[in-house]
Predict the 3D structure of the following.
Amino acid sequence: MAMSSVVLAVIVWTSLQFGSEFSQSLSNAEAFAMFRLPVSLQSFVGWYHHPMNDKLGGLQLLELRDIDSKISNSVAFGGDCVDRLERLEANLDTNGVKVQQGTPMHGQLIDSYPLTEALHHGRDSLVAIKASLHLMHSVCLESGLADEQCARYITSLKLPMAENGSEEDSVEAVHKLLGDKCMAYHGTSLSCSKSTKYRSVNGSCNHLIHPSWGQAFTSYRRLLFPEYSDGIQQPREHAIGLPKNKHNLLPSARLVSSSLALDGDLPDNIKTLAVMQWTQFVEHDLAHTPVNKMYNKFESSIMCCKPDGRHLSPRYVHPACMPISIAHNDPVYSSRRMTCMNYVRSVTAMRSDCSFGPAEQMNQATHYLDGSMIYGSTDNKAAKLRLFRHGHLKNTAKNGQTFLPSAEDPSIQCQLDPNSQACYESGDSRVNAHPHLTVMHTIWLREHNRIADKLAELNPTWDDERLFQEARRIVIAEIQHITYDEWLPLVLGEKYTKKFGLTSKKDGFSKEYSENVDPSITNSFATAALRFVHSLMEGKLRLVKEDREVNHTIQLRDHFNRPRIVEENNHLDALVRGLATQNSQKNDMTYTEDITSLLYQDSENYGLDIISLDVQRGRDHGLPGYNQFRKICGLPVATSFNDFKEIPKAIVQKLKSMYKHPDDVDMLIGGMSEKPKDDSLLGPTFRCIIGEQFGRTKKGDRFFYDLKGQSGSFSEDQLQEIRKVTLARILCDNAEVEKMQPSVFHKPSSSNRLEYCTDDTKIPKMNFSFWAEEADSS
């Protein structure tokens, strides 16, 4: 980066706020009306992308001398920090300080398993983060800027690039390549074709102007500037506005969970477990946050607590560790004398504008609703999943049924024991997490191959590649249609989704795509808002017969990453009926103990707590507190706990006893505590954040299924057939079930009766004749 080494005059904002006028003058409803105006829509992203949105405070000029030298020294420091970890990591590896197979920590690693490409990017981003920290100290001490102000300032400074294409092998030259690596990660040299009919696997080239928007291995988007205690990477630890000492620490994530979350059975009388499962399936399509492995030895995992739940000796603690403290009087873990719950920090990514600045976490899935949990997010993964015959995905046949292909390394991908040897491979490492998720993956594998066979019958001249790509294109359209037509109105509310254009059109084409809309998933959506799904989960899973009588019940806790049950005794079909019959739990602060103390349990009945992990992840990711998200969603900022009018009084009292200030309340906890708004499952803050995201997911996708005039657009006849698809039809076509209610997200009732799957007037079927070569006008 060519910058003057003499005096550089730069404007520094000494008093910056995110979108004050935006959040205070707009109601929640008005904010989402902005989706109709693409330029305004982008203003929701945050101040550092659109500085015009900020109400600027006082301005001052800061004179920086030798800026080139400061940047170069900072990058050298960052590289040295990462290189010096090699000795520590070698010591940890030699002493066996790593995750042991079959333990709860192993289940945790499977859930966030990092791909090698993610780890390479993460190592480079760590260099940039350490350099940013050094740059803050070397630059901002001169001006007296506070950490957050300085962190905001250095985002205006770009990572250095090699000058004149230099290929020197010196350390300094390697450091200067940091900017080049970032530019390469963000696809600035990609050559994208507007005429391409099919999506790329990794999400690149969806946007022609910004080819890396939505691409796998890029960072999450921010709605608010991140809050780190040092401005760059250190998680929030202390209460707002109080001295930073041990008396003013934020409550432990486990203490928050055990104090606020209730164990109980509060079923929703209308909605089925299919709501939970589709929420999780969509979540896995849109977001997958990997955790770190060792930076200099990618094959070695990081362990932050002893297997017995005690703290490690300080000499064995990796810098990526952020373990959760457990109180001596914990209601569950104290009987085991546990003091430590494992948590490894998330992999970070280069900032999208290749600048210095605070840590940004990586999404290793594509940011699009594109079936990446089925097909993978890399070309290598996609190839491993393909049969390369008949357009099919790989599968295994057992007991006359089709199942997912076997995992390449079951000992890594499942928590196997002698009685459970089944382990599956899919586009996402979480495929084996629990039986209903494995069932959903299996159903969609079958759906892809079923469609490929239909297309082959109609078009005998199509080769494997054409059959595969066309089947994938239809499957993605089906997923998008079910999400926007059936699921989203239920989650956000019918009126809300209609008012802000988030529902699927019933006829005709959409023209809502905008090149100005960045579809990237927000950190707050992936890390907090969509985690409401865990409250909907049920600890006892019903295996249901065709007459809808319960045949058997299994415990969720016994089947984490042990999926063998889905291929035994026709249990897959019984689980499908259970999804469409059993009540979902209500969305509230009541959770099943199967995930609050027995998550990924081992043979000794010891497991983890999902709420603790989710709260800790929010702090790891620098998510500002709940109060700040209220502000951008049009709710009044709370100056006292009693101002949380959207939260039941009993919970407000608990929050008051746990936190020292309303600003301290973790985003996940505040959002989950809100009472549902109108006919939504969610309170106003989570509804706002999820609605914002699905607006962008639809309007920022050039290949969205109902668009007209794009290279991947369907013909009008094809689109009308796709609009017939429901989740009920998908289950009917791909499981051995005779009957299904038309809306599987709602319990069978007088207005939602069980119908025979063969009756395509009640549960419509697609007519594939419009995909015959001569009929295909797309």
About this structure: DSSP finds 28 helices and 17 strands in the chain. Residues 13 and 438 are 50 Å apart (CA to CA). The chain has two domains: 8-237+348-360, 274-285+364-587+687-771. The radius of gyration is 26 Å.
